[in-house]
Amino acid sequence: MSRTLQDQAVEALARQVVSEVSPAELPLFSASAERYRADPSGALRSGGAGDRALGFGVETAVVLVTPFALDLVKRMLTRLAEKLGDNAADSMAGRIARWFGAEPQTPAEPDEAAALSADQLRVVAEVTRTEAASLDMPSDQSDRLADAVIAALATRA
Amino acid sequence: MRPLRPGSLPTDTSLRFLLVLAAVTAASLYLFSAMWFLFRGWVFADAVARCADVSGELVAGQIGTGAEQLRAAAECRTGASREQAAAELIGSLVVLWVAYLVYRIWPRLVERRAHLTAPVQEEATALLAEVGRLSVEAGVEPVPALRLDATNPAVSGFAYGAGRRMRLGLAGGLVVTAVTDPPAFRAIVRHELGHVAERDVPWTYYAVAMWWSFLALAVLPVTLLFAVRDLGYLLRLGWRTVALAGLVALTIAALLRVRESYADARAAQWGSGADLDRLLASAPDGRTRRPEALRTHPTHTSRRAGLADPDLLFAASGWAAFAAGVAASAAQTSVADLVYLIAPGRAGGIAALLVAPLVAAVVCTSAWRVGLREAVRGCRPAGSGRLGVGLGVGLAVGPILSFDAAVGSFAQGASGWAGYLIWAVAQAGVAVLLAQWALDSARLRVRAALGEPAGPRAAFAWHVLAMTGVLALWLATSAQMLTVMTTLGVAGVGLLPVLHLVPQSALVTGAGAWPLVLVAGLLIQPVRSLQLAGRPPAQWFWRDPGEVTGSKGAGADPESGPLRWGILGTCAVIGAAAGVVGAVAGAATLVLGSGLDGVVQASDSFLLAVTGAISAGLTAASVCAGVGAAAAVPRGWWPIGLLASVVALWVAGAGAWLTLSAYRYGILGIGGTSNRPLGWAGTQSTILEPGLRALMATILAMAVVGLLRPARAPSTSPDGIGAPRARSALSTSAVLRTVLVGAGVMLAVLGWIGLPVLSALSVSAPSVSQPGYTVAVPPPWEATSDPESASTQVRTVAQDVLVVILPTEMTSPVDLGESIQVGDREAVLIDATEEGIVLWLTYEVRSADGPFLVVVGGTTDALLAGQQELRELFAGVTWVGGG
Do A50 and B158 touch (CB under 8 A)? Predict the structure, then answer.
């Protein structure tokens, strides 16, 4: 499945966020992103469909932030597109992708190397915190995710 | 203390897979039989109706011919049986084949369902390296491929795959744990590698695939089809279907549980025991409300106990024995139906041989694991009771779940169920003895086998082979006995004109044969005692105590037998005990039989009880005395004993049959035993074979005990867990000599003492040479010249067929030695001729002239020849009873 520019930006920024918040999940990142692309809501539902009867038999679990990080970044970009328009959102997606290591197939725009302005950052922070609050996870963890997203973009800016 | 290696013997996991396979096969045979009956039942009904007529032509009223009549009916029904068996076989194979397909594609289904994906090499370098390291450390190579269920937060994993391609599926939570809690990660991965090392993954997935295939192709169609077409029959089949499906489900659950225990043991062996224990202690035990038997994982408490004491894996499993018993005995009749297509004459024996390995493997595996634990730890052996009771109950319950039982040809009526009950109790009792014997043999052999370079598996395989032979004989015998005690009594196909007598015959057969069977079981006990090393009773039997301790030879006299004469006293006690058992069984059965149908009379009860006591006592005492007599037999005479034993087996069988034939006479109201040989053809009768085979099984068992005893044993074992070896109590030659010479003495006792005693019982019975036997009254009816018995009429309707009509106030000649006056001569109403038994049937007749007793007598052949005349003679007569 070919990934869109937005997908690339989402995964690039989310990987950065996961590396800050829960680096232990990095071995899972590509697999999680693939699963999220195929079925976003399924990836966010906790409790996988592993073969429980034939499994280890001890029912403990951890909180995996990767699917939520992917979801948060995707929501943030979607809301920015709604607020700023598709062109601005695409531009931001391209910049995010390049900043965080992805190599978009589209040629770079002249302003893609530029950092985000203070206003842009304020809008991004506002949107990110709003979307994080609606994530189906404990608020302290969603706040941590939002902080990590904003921090990643701010340090680039 | 070094832990025992769970894999040093076949594990319970492999055993339970076999059980699942057997249970699914047995249940499928049952359900596909039902399905065939639903669509093609009319074929069977037609065959039964047609073959009842065919077998009816053989009717002679002789109970001993029941088996031949049933066989004739079965042969007549071959076409329908062939079709039914083909349906069973094809259906069951389809279930197993579809299960195999499911098993092969299951890994893909698992990966799709759990969204498993391969890790990206660059991302998961450390993870892959760690799993590879753990795998190599554990000796699991090639390293299983990793697949990630990345968004699953569970701290869990599972091994899966088909064939040799094994994979580990790791949930996202477990991958995170590799960083946050590496020991816990290693413990869980090692546990999953344990499954791979135990090679239980293919078995487990194939077992689960069998479950789904069985449900989809057998249970569901049968349920739906019967619900639509024949709800009443569904209810009749239903509980058996539920029971069989339940057996399959419980066996699979047991398989899933036990594999976890073995994987835990492996992980602990590789250094993660403490971490596994920590994980189990800290995590909630899910589904605690579900009964243990239905859980797919052991409780955390059980798992922690297993980690603390891995020796718990070396225990006897009563449940496995029960499941094996049920599966084997439920499948036995169906398998016999299948074999009948190929080998009609030996279907029962071959079927027993086919199901026996399953039971043998279960019993021996448990016995060897217990034996290994005892040998290494020196702990007290336990579990033979659990093993034996489980096996016995399973073997007893299985026939109720068979298709034969479902279609109604099994234990109908109170007498049928009484016969079944006697059979079941005896079956369970002998199973306990067999389990004890297996456990004792295993304990002795495992000590020597631990020292073998190849480990104990080879010796174990030999033991399974031997046990298979014994069990096959036993299962064939007991199946035949069950048929006699239930089916024959309720054949219900018009095979016998004396059906009202048959329930008693079945019960009496049980009373007559089971003392022999119990004696067979009792004979195992002396062998056990002799075999157990270091036991004082064993030493008591031997002239040289060194025979027991293994240091024999110093003071032994090479020309004298190895056993003390004192054993004779023991044998006499055992013989007397067996006699009491025979008497009680005979009397109890007669009381039961009389209570049910009120036919058997008190004098017959006494006769039967006494004869039963004599039979059992003679058999037991003679065999045991033979064992004891080995003490006096010089070494080197064993070939003579061998020859004698072969003859003795047949004589013993004939003796048993002669005794049992007295039962038949008693039941028929003629009384007494014949003083003329009844012919060797009779030794193939339904009644003889079980007793004879029981004796043969016993002697074979005794021989196997001795012949397969390990001859040598190094002092250390390859894995260092062997204890100093203790030698077997009994040398091979001693056991062989004991058995063979014992059988020889049995020949003497039965041939020279038993038969005269039996003959002496018949002194009051008239002889064939007695004047007056030949009553020739010319046809047609002719009144006797006896004025006191004017209404007594006698006539012959064919050559050697005599009909006597008596007024009802006259005593029916049912008592021993009874005779009646015919004319001026005394006519004797019992005898046997060279052609066979003279049969007397007594009927109550109501006619215009009043009630009569009609006694019809003659040889079997003569009666058959005179059937037409008899029909004409009694045309229009209203039969009140007996007819």
Answer: yes
* Alpha-carbon gap, residue B741 to B750, rounded angstroms: 14
CA B502 to chain centre: 24
DSSP A116: P
**How far is Cα B538 from Cα B522, in angstroms, rounded to an integer?**
16
Q: With an 8 Å Cβ cutoff, are B169 and A51 in contact?
A: yes
A66-84 and A118-133 helices, crossing angle to 10° = 130
Are residues A59 and B180, on separate chains, in Cβ contact within 8 Å? no
Nearest of B204, B186, B179 to residue B267 by alpha carbon: B186
- pLDDT tens, position by position, B804-824: 554 444 433 333 234 444 444
pLDDT tens-digit profile of B834-864?
344 444 454 544 444 444 455 555 555 555 5
Q: Is A60's pLDDT higher than 70?
A: yes
Q: Which two tokens stand for residue B837?
A: 């038994």
Which of A30, A58, A62, A63 to mutate to test binding with chain B, by most B CBs within 10 Å of its CB?
Answer: A58
Per-residue confidence (pLDDT) for residue B227, from 0 to 100 = 77
Question: Is residue B879 predicted with pLDDT exceeding 70?
Answer: no
Closest CA to A100 of A7, A8, A13, A6: A13
Residues on chain A touching B169 (C-beta within 8 angstroms) = 50-51
- Give yes or no for A43 touching B (CB within 8 A): yes
Chain A contact probe: residue of B102, B115, B120, B151 with most A CBs at under 10 A: B151
Q: Which chain A residue is nearest to residue B154, measuring alpha carbons?
A: A61
Distance CA B881, CA B836 (A): 26
B221 prior amide bond cis, ω within 30 = no
Count of C-beta atoms within a 10 Å radius of residue B292:
12
